[in-house]
Amino acid sequence: MAQPRSSLICARAFSQIFSAMSLTCTLRCFFLLLMWGVGTGLTSAQTPAASTSATPGPKRQLQAVRITEAIKLDGVLDEAVWQQAPIASDFIQQRPNPGVPEKHKTEVRVLYDDAALYVGAIMHDSSPDSILHEITQRDNFGNTDLFSVFLDTYHDQLNGYNFTVTTSGVQLDGRYSPAGGEDFNWNAVWDARTSIRGTDWIAEMRIPYSAIRFSNAPEQLWGLNFARQRKRDNAQFFWNEVKPAVDGFVNQWGDLRGVRDIKPPLRLSLTPYVSAYVNHNPLNAEGTRRTTTSFNGGADLKWGINESFTLDATLVPDFGQVQSDNQVLNLSPFEVQFTENRQFFTEGTELFNKGNLFYSRRVGATPVGFYNVAVGDKEKILRNPAETRLLNATKISGRTKNGLGVGLFNAVSNEMYATVRNEETGKERRVMTQPLSNYNIFVLDQSLKNNSYVSLINTNVTRAGNTYDANVTGGLFRFANKKNSYAVDGQLVYSRRRGQTFGEATPIDDRDGYKYKVGVSKISGAFTWSLSQGIESASYNPNDLGILFGNNNITQILDVAYRIYKPFWKVNNFSVFSEINHSLLYKPTLYQSSYLYLGANTTFTKSFLQIGFDFDTDPASHDFYEPRTFPLGKYYVHLPANTGFVLFANSDTRKKLSYGVNVGNRTFALDDRLGRPRRIKYLAGFYPRYRVNDHLTFRYSLDWSIVHNQIGFVNGGLSTDEPLDQPFMNQILLGRRDVATVSNVVSVAYTFNNRMSFTLRTRHYTSNVRYEDFSTLAPGGQETLVDYRRNRDNTYNAFNVDAVYAWWFAPGSQVNIVWKNAGSSFLLADEATPQYFDNFNRTINTPHNNSLSIKVLYYLDYLTFKRQK
């Protein structure tokens, strides 16, 4: 009987990887000896063994006490009722020495009434100066002690809440989920007060039921844990032991009992905003205003549909104050993925991130026709907005008492137009660059026992008119055994496109595609591994609402890791990990690449200096994407065998002056087919931070890299009609180039108190490209040097300043004053220069766009109004 095609592919893949790799016996022996030594000789220092075992510790229980009198939130705990509640104590260290009982006791009590949960904690210490208390912005960790409360309100051991307060009263909150991990972008409206009394510090927290979701059961059973960070020792302790060798976090919490006869409240809040902008752009077209003003208004709405589900909506949103994107020179065949900074798209989106099918920057992105505005003779583009205006966005999400998570996301963006003016007549006309568009996501996620789940997700983009629509549907699963030591997981996704490319009359070519991935892994214990295989078909395309850099792949990956969690010798911990990766082109089935990766890191016991390295070696590979020709397979750029490494170190962040540093190198084998010199890359990074005091901190980051003799795409096919390129119009043109890139970021943060701060961030980025020679590319990766005389050298500069004053004047209410300064330049041919300070001076002296804005948000809670009546 013939073997299944997938089995043949997998077998051939792993046979090719070992035959293709040019590893020396020394490297193989070194790796085997390292794994053997770590797994035998070093583990003898691990005592007690229970603290690093892969078996979860026993579940503790705490009884909450109902109260009838009011609690004054002042960080004192002087009400008599606090003394009547049972005490949670005897915390267990999780790092740096797992399993060790706390030396300085922590005492926690829990009260509740019909409106909120109250948590009071006393953290005993040795002396007042052992209690560190740097003041930071909300949701930012600093050089400070802290106390955390964790709640799993549906007791599914998968999803949970985090409410944290530092010694200075700075609040942090987050969510936990299998899809999102630890997500501190989530924000809730709650309150906390702290105080320092002698050698103790005290935290008093009020968590209203409107901040969490729970069932309507007469008696609640919630997962519960507490954590304390004692920054003086860089130590973290948990009430219910959290073992680092056990897979999962929420499943290692204890239980909160005794909460009875509470009802999920009507969760209804409105946060209206008003904003005003003054924008000055000296580069505006002639005849237009250089300085403009605008006034905006809208609101965010939260409505608890029932005890499980919440609707979040933003009406006429304004995202003009978010941090500027880090613009870069992109020479790759793939788009740049930017960080999402808009709060609505970062908060409470864990369900929508299942399967990595949602890239939120697609919503409100650059209009699809931005780069293809058709202009006639004697016409020029007057205005062409680079961002699509959102009309509204809505999320409905929640989880039932049976563990079924449901999510629905919808957003509508407006039509966008460019304005074109005839320079002779002055007549203006509008050209559509984006049709009215609707973005939709639907998710079902069923939590199962043993930290397992099954999920279904669908994303859809519908555009007005004949512009194509896109639909992606995926199924995911993860099943772990009862001991939570092994798991299998998988994903199957189908993509579909129908319609016409924007601005064209012909239907799109890419229609239906699929992706699958299946894997098996050992997930708990000191030694872990995973083995997976995946395929992305040649027409699989989720990029209308997701992001995928390249399809048409068959990939096999083997990961192996070993970790020592207990201190030994002079270090706190040690981790070593490796990966074997092999990739084929799916259609036609051709070899792409393979590599072996090896990395390790450790932290020293006394100095808390972290050091580590990353090393990989890759045999010769074929880059089918760099030639920019489709369908893939006929052309590729040959990459010689290469080896790379990075060494890094991070100093103790408790000190006033701390730093991070890395250096690396990648060296390619000599490719003498055209007599070219060897390709080589150097990189370095330096990241110092100086904390002047508990209020003021300076940070600096420097990233530098230079690549010599990189081979990259210049132009090809019918992609250009420039006269000097006519001899090469029907050929793919590659260039050998040197690329030098420098990025500098300077930031200052001054925190007045736990509700008011000022931050200033300045970034300068420059990348210079100089070409040495050119070649044409033939099928099969063959290159031929050509006499190409067009100067393709270029330099890109980007400069940004973001200054933000933020004041949380009431719970959920905020005033932001933001100044932004932005400028960039793209220099070609003889104007391009590799001199850094020439680029910096040119960037500074180039006219910049300046924007000053003020935005006021005010949180209105229905329950607050109801109590005041």
Automatic annotation (TrEMBL):
Where is coiled-coil annotated? Answer: none
Domain DUF5916: from-to ranges: 264-867
UniProt xrefs under InterPro entries: Carb-bd_dom_fam9, DUF5916
- Signal peptide residue numbers: none
Q: Which Gene3D superfamilies match?
A: 2.60.40.1190
For this chain, one GO molecular function annotation is:
hydrolase activity, hydrolyzing O-glycosyl compounds
GO biological process assignments = carbohydrate catabolic process
Q: Name one Pfam family in it.
A: CBM9_1
Q: Domain named Carbohydrate-binding: which ranges?
A: 73-230
Please identify the protein, giving its name as recorded: Carbohydrate binding family 9 domain-containing protein
Q: Which organism does this sequence originate in?
A: Hymenobacter jejuensis
